[in-house]
Amino acid sequence: xxxxxxxxxxxxxxxxxxxxxxxxxxxxxxxxxxxxxxxxxxxxxxxxxxxxxxxxxxxxxxxxxxxxxxxxxxxxxxxxxxxxxxxxxxxxxxxxxxxxxxxxxxxxxxxxxxxxxxxxxxxxxxxxxxxxxxxxxxxxxxxxxxxxxxxxxxxxxxxxxxxxxxxxxxxxxxxxxxxxxxxxxxxxxxxxxxxxxxxxxxxxxxxxxxxxxxxxxxxxxxxxxxxxxxxxxxxxxxxxxxxxxxxxxxxxxxxxxxxxxxxxxxxxxxxxxxxxxxxxxxxxxxxxxxxxxxxxxxxxxxxxxxx
Length: 307
Fold this sequence. Notes:
Blueprint: H1 5-27, H2 30-55, H3 64-80, E1 85-86, E2 89-90, H4 91-113, H5 119-140, H6 144-148, H7 164-187, E3 191-193, E4 196-200, H8 201-220, H9 223-228, H10 243-269, H11 284-306
Antiparallel strand pairs: 1-2, 3-4
Helix pairs in contact: 1-2, 2-3, 2-5, 2-10, 3-4, 3-5, 5-7, 5-11, 7-8, 7-10, 7-11, 8-10, 10-11
């Protein structure tokens, strides 16, 4: 597939704007991070419900109580996974009650309108979208140095102001997506899957390898300490920590499956893009499809390492 420079230019310009917004949200503090992904969570849900309604027209008939109740349930899960405090109040407590309120709303609608069969689509959405973003919030609250660099003493120890592990997942997705597109455009010959005809094995493998190498080297260099404001000078920080490479590899591989899963949804719905959030990139699901599947597996790996 020859490189289309006009398409690449459009994607590049919109991507620059996108990256600026993402970086501010990701790196400013925990609250901008949470606000950013709350908006993204909402956008993904709106597009998911639109896609499902095209696949199963009956889903378009769900009431506003169901439609927004399930989104509220997912958003409550994100709050529940947030370990921050406001004047000593744990926001996870509020998250629990938000989840309860959302679940009650959905169940009331299900009982009143007798649309029990349609709730399966919403449950899939909770697993596909809300679980992923909730676990991403959990990663943002995880001390990466304790998780992946046990035994090191780091001055000004990571204080949770920047989600080092969450940023790793997002950054891996960006590098993998970009490198897969470039490598596939230049040397791609073998189609990866009929679900996504433009993807090639060459581009996919090249993207994964380059993403693992780039992110692994970046994170092993002390970058996590830099973005979290820590000082690793003389601390014994392990610059050859293999966990960064493994986590990046998991994110890149599972992100590819996430891309294919969303492509399958779009194919079933008969649409090219899930939305029009970004010129040349499509909607929220188009932009974060890889993240949705990669996050739970990276979170699981971190949990196993700490187990």
